[in-house]
Amino acid sequence: MTRTSATRIAVRASGGRDYEVVIGSGLLDHVGVEAREAAPGVRHWVVIADHTVDELYGDRVSRSFGASDVSVRRLTFPAGERHKTRDTWASLTDRLLDLAVGRDGGIVALGGGVAGDLAGFVAATYMRGIPVVQVPTSIVAMVDSAVGGKTGVDTPLGKNLVGAFHAPARVVVDPATVETLPRAQRSEGLAEAAKHGAIIDDGYAREIRLHAGALLDGRPSVVEPVVRRSIEIKAEVVSQDEREGGLREVLNFGHTLGHAFEAASDYRLPHGHAVAVGMVCEARLGESLGLTAPGTADELRTLLEALELPVAPPAGWDPASVLGFVQADKKVRDGKARVVLLECMGRVAPAAPGWAHPVAPNVMRELLDSA
Ligand SMILES: NC(=O)c1ccc[n+]([C@@H]2O[C@H](COP(=O)([O-])OP(=O)(O)OC[C@H]3O[C@@H](n4cnc5c(N)ncnc54)[C@H](O)[C@@H]3O)[C@@H](O)[C@H]2O)c1
Ligand SMILES: [Zn+2]
To answer: What's the mean pLDDT when you consider all of the chain?
Structure first.
């Protein structure tokens, strides 16, 4: 492909660190050109990926730098959330030091959200911060984690507890990589895309539902416009509110309950599944409070079912334990959980102030008991 057929979206970030997201099938062969243009001072590029993604795409990405005057090396780590740790961060950092990468180094974070968060955090901290180019290859990473600048690792006490904001120099998205992504991973990523439709764009939600089959099959011609629309939405939201004091809060739709379901399952429930169930429950909550148009929860349910996502809590779940995690959330104020609620599909119900509505524990308990 020529680079001109790619879509470019501008994202505003603090400290004048605005960056571009470039989206187009075949862009994997242009990562080098994009990276060098975005961070011309970098002499030593290091591509960090998990073993699976490195095997699939590491060669293409490192070859995309061509026979140029910059060096390109590859570092890998074992795939999976359980490797998104301080230990893996330390090991990658030590290997960069062994390679004698200095302040003129740069990182290419190639892969799913784990590689993006982990390699992004390495870049945020190495030599007090070197440029990172995000190259997401999962739908989760494309529509969610690669844009916004959040990086970090998990600890035994919880997910993403140690991290930093580190805006990428550029984000290069090649939707064709979704072809090799397992179907279950596609489905999970589409939960976040459905969320974007639910909070901001009803037409987009309908589009996703219409093309659910082809999206789950990973057909590039259908994946590309969806990834593009989701990135537009996320870019618009984080450009207005990088650090989550205001509008960024709307992205938490489905996540107050979603996170609680996830934690109560001891993280056996995949995040995308937890968010799908969370969105349906939060829509029902909004309906019962008279803030969400009747029928919205059903509409969401139909959309999520088309994406092969669960719409009810897993068998054997315990409402009391879920409520415990809801109440333990760091966003709880005066004993009340804060929940983003829809007005209808495509629109969030404004709260005063902000976007999250305080919900008392007894109301939450009633909702959970009937779920
Ligand atoms: N920073 C943020 O704002 C943000 C937002 C959402 C999620 N996240 C993080 O993202 C992570 C989840 O992301 P994920 O679901 O992409 O997980 P992941 O990175 O583990 O990828 C899932 C699996 O798919 C494989 N894979 C990725 N791309 C592939 C491809 N094109 N072909 C074949 N296999 C491929 C990976 O090797 C892995 O086994 C979590 O750690 C979460 O906390 C961060
Ligand atoms: Zn999420």
So the answer is: 95
